[in-house]
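re: that chain from earlier
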Amino acid sequence: MLTTSKAGQTTTPQAVHQLPQEGLIRIYQIVGSRSKGIPAILPIGRTSFLNGVKSGKYPKPVKLGERTTAWRVEDIRALIEHLGGAE
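^ sequence. v structure.
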């Protein structure tokens, strides 16, 4: 199953399996980055994801520093399962 976001990024079920078992991940690992060659786990754009975080639809991040934010892998896996994206 392939899905494509508005930004033209394609995500596959393999992207979900590439998540570490535990730890923290950055936003580009969640919504993908063309420049870094990282596929999207969630087929949405960065702004849509951040708006979802702000509204409470998506998990809250962990602040690692003044300009560094990350999300718990466990929270992202739970979100994927909740949205029905996990196989």
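Helices lie at 13-17, 27-31, 46-55, 73-83.
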